[in-house]
Design a protein that fits this description.
The structure holds two protein chains of two kinds.
Chain A (H helix, E strand, L loop, with lengths): L2 E13 L3 H6 L6 E13 L3 E5 L6 H8 L7 E6 L2 E2 L5 H8 L2 E4 L13 H11 L7 H11 L16 H13 L5 E5 L7 H18 L2 E6 L2 H7 L2 E6 L2 E7 H6 L4 H8 L40 H5 L4 E5 L2 E4 L5
Parallel strand pairs in A: 3-8, 3-9, 6-7, 7-8
Antiparallel strand pairs in A: 1-2, 1-4, 4-5, 9-10, 10-12, 11-12
Helix pairs in contact in A: 4-5, 4-6
Chain B lengths: L3 H4 L6 E12 L2 E13 L4 E5 L6 H8 L7 E10 L2 E2 L5 H7 L4 E4 L3 H4 L6 H7 L8 H14 L5 H4 L9 H13 L5 E5 L7 H18 L2 E5 L3 H7 L2 E6 L2 E7 H6 L4 H9 L48 E5 L2 E4 L10
Parallel strand pairs in B: 3-8, 3-9, 6-7, 7-8
Antiparallel strand pairs in B: 1-2, 1-4, 4-5, 9-10, 10-12, 11-12
Helix pairs in contact in B: 6-8, 8-9
Classes of the chains: A alpha/beta, B alpha/beta.
């Protein structure tokens, strides 16, 4: 399969204070690195999941793909075309191919537009002519399983699951090749969560769309994705095929995450790797291995040296000194 | 009254009987709760599960009598030990809220006052106690240390925004337990937190519940946490309790078709990888125009023509395991 998207060693940083304040404070580096050196590839028709706690940089990395934040270093290639440094005019046609489903299902829909206008707006933005707006909108709603009676509804009238579907219809409007779904199931009940994920899978199957799913729900990742990456403080600590990572998590952080979502069974064996503490601040990154402050296997060298990226299986990498 | 003496009896800490609540809206009466009965025995953790809109929050608000003005309690009683909360005067209610019944809310940022320091908030809630300020302060420090706030003495001066989400929820727990309540209501206490913090908070609650010997009503839609944390589980659907029982009755021997479906839908329960996840077809019934029969009939996968067109009776399958269904039989092991 051909790579649709290639991200290589992307760094994204945000200013923490103004220019003048930095000079006064003699702060030579007034930045935090939200993403540092993340690399991933997404193949045609596959689902890639980005997993991590809040503040890990998942959303920032995803937003950089469609140019909503600009990386300071690295390369993002879509079908072998470099997206970084591209001017708005040449970027715009590429944005038709990459759609985004935002995190807040209701918040990302304009409260003053009807569903009909919301889902056909992408055509207007890209100057694409459509003959019959209602027909096109009905077709899109049908794809996401909503009846045409929703055409004249406004976002406040929609439930969480319905708003998600409208967001998905909008993402599908321009027949994209890649959809970035930021927390597609957050805040949904389990039965509706299943409906949304099944819908995404069906569309992927029918239209050969690739998905980049951002989530912290590991049960969702396990069933829906082909490959996954676990992010911690803006770095990937483990990447690989989903099945393999669930069967044999290598990085201690992956183990912590996996045992942090208890099974819905009161008698399930609880060999839990208890998480310690909270995610550190990006302003004061820990030395050496950045996970050492919360790791139960911590050794002296973890505090001192940065662990190398090691290959532990086919297409399965992780960043930890511990070999087994 | 410290409540210590009462905790020794086997009487339920909280007993909700046949509670029905309507909301008066433009579209008519929404029958948010119908004939809900829940018992919370001493020192037990009772989980309340169900999808959004099933009435979980209405139950909590009824217990605290914080229902909005358009709500009407049409039937039933809520007994806290021996007293009926629904009969209490506002003064009596004020005496129990925060003292005998306290709550941990979903979002700690909105349950703490952003304009007051933690010290101020934690001494304020001890307003009933006739002790001096420094003792109250010391109690607050002890409690914060107990819930795992490092350097509590210094952090007491801080404001809520200076703490991380997990720390804020720990503070909210400290405040809820400070008055040693008989009943702690935890309303989705971990939903706003990351997975690693979620499990830390649950482990903390487990330890504290044993230490303070209180009962807990744990409201959540995270079935994994409920299975991990609770002794008993109450399953609600569209304003009715459809099944209740010991945690193992619910997770291993679920009898109501809704409970079964709900458990099947949880992707965490499905061991082998599947791309098509199970769902519950259909929608929650309209709570304004309810027909007087089985609430789940529209979405039920086991219903048959023999199901009478009446409200299903609440039957006790095995001691303590109740189900409201015309069909369910006891002892179906999964």
């Amino acid at each position: 399969m051909k790579n649709l998207l290639e991200i290589e060693k992307v760094k994204i940083r945000f200013r923490t204070k103004g220019m003048l304040k930095a000079v006064i404070d003699r702060d030579k580096d007034p930045y935090i690195e939200a993403v540092c050196g993340a690399s991933l590839t997404i193949k045609q028709g596959e689902t890639f999941a980005l997993v991590g706690e809040s503040g890990a940089g998942k959303t920032t990395l995803a937003r950089s793909i469609i140019g909503l934040v600009t990386p300071s270093q690295g390369s993002i290639r879509y079908r072998d075309q470099e997206l970084m440094g591209l001017d708005d005019k040449s970027f715009k046609p590429l944005k038709r191919d990459i759609a985004m489903m935002f995190q807040d299902p209701v918040g990302c829909l304009s409260p003053r537009l009807s569903v009909r206008s919301i889902i056909t707006e992408p055509f207007k933005i890209h100057g694409l002519p459509i003959n019959d707006v209602t027909k096109e909108a009905t077709k899109l709603l049908d794809m996401v399983g909503l009846p045409a009676s929703f055409l004249n509804s406004f976002p406040y009238q929609l439930s969480g699951g319905q708003a998600r579907r409208v967001g998905m219809a909008r993402a599908l409007a321009l027949s994209p090749k890649l959809i970035i779904a930021d927390e597609p199931t957050a805040g949904l009940d389990v039965s509706i969560q299943g409906e949304i994920l099944n819908l995404m899978y069906r569309l992927q199957h029918e239209l050969n769309i690739s998905f980049l799913i951002i989530t912290h729900n590991l049960a969702v990742v396990r069933h829906t994705s082909d490959r996954m990456a676990i992010m911690y403080l803006g770095r990937f600590v483990e990447t690989g095929p989903t099945d393999e990572i669930f069967a044999q998590p290598s990085h201690p952080y992956t183990k912590v995450l996996l045992s942090s979502s208890p099974e819905p069974d009161p008698d399930a064996p609880r060999n839990r790797v208890m998480p310690i503490g909270e995610i550190p601040s990006l302003i004061n990154r820990p030395s050496g291995c950045e996970f050492h402050t919360r790791c139960i296997y911590v050794e002296d060298r973890c505090r001192r040296d940065v662990p190398p990226n090691r290959n532990v299986g086919l297409d399965h990498d992780m960043t930890c000194f511990k070999s087994e | 009254m410290t409540g210590e003496g009462q905790k020794q009896t086997s009487e339920n800490v909280l007993s909700i009987k046949d509670l029905s609540v309507n909301f008066n809206t433009e579209d008519g009466f929404i029958q948010a709760l119908r004939r809900v009965s829940i018992d919370i025995p001493p020192r037990q953790i009772v989980g309340l599960v169900g999808e959004s809109g099933c009435g979980k929050s209405t139950i909590i608000n009824s217990i605290l009598k914080l229902l909005s003005n358009n709500a009407e309690i049409t039937n039933g009683s809520i007994h806290l030990q021996n007293e009926d909360i629904l009969m209490m005067t506002p003064t009596q209610l004020r005496a129990i809220r925060g003292k005998r019944v306290s709550v941990i809310f979903q979002d700690p940022m909105t349950s703490l006052n952003p304009a007051l320091s933690i010290a101020r908030q934690m001494t304020d809630i001890q307003y009933r106690d006739q002790i001096n300020k420094s003792t109250k302060r010391q109690r607050a420090i002890d409690m914060l240390t107990r819930v795992g706030i490092p350097d509590a003495q210094k952090r007491l001066k801080s404001y809520p925004h200076q703490f991380s989400g997990g720390m804020r929820q720990r503070i909210a727990i400290a405040m809820a337990l400070l008055m040693k309540p008989d009943l702690l209501i935890a309303d989705e206490p971990t939903t706003a937190l990351d997975a690693t913090l979620q499990i830390q908070i649950i482990e903390l609650l487990k330890v504290l519940q044993k230490e303070f010997r209180c009962s807990v009503l744990f409201v959540s839609h995270h079935l994994g946490l409920v299975a991990d944390f609770c002794d008993q589980v109450v399953v609600m659907y569209a304003g009715e309790v459809v099944e209740s029982g010991d945690v193992r009755d619910i997770f291993h021997r679920a009898a109501h078709p809704y409970t079964k479906r709900l458990l099947e839908c949880d992707p965490a329960r499905i061991k082998t990888k599947t791309r098509i996840l199970p769902t519950i077809p259909g929608n929650i019934p309209d709570l304004v125009n309810l027909s007087n029969d089985c609430i789940f009939k529209e979405r039920c996968h086991i219903k048959d023509d023999k199901c009478p067109l009446t409200i299903a009776p609440l039957r006790e399958l095995t001691p303590g395991h109740f189900v409201q269904c015309h069909l369910s039989q006891a002892g179906e092991s999964q």
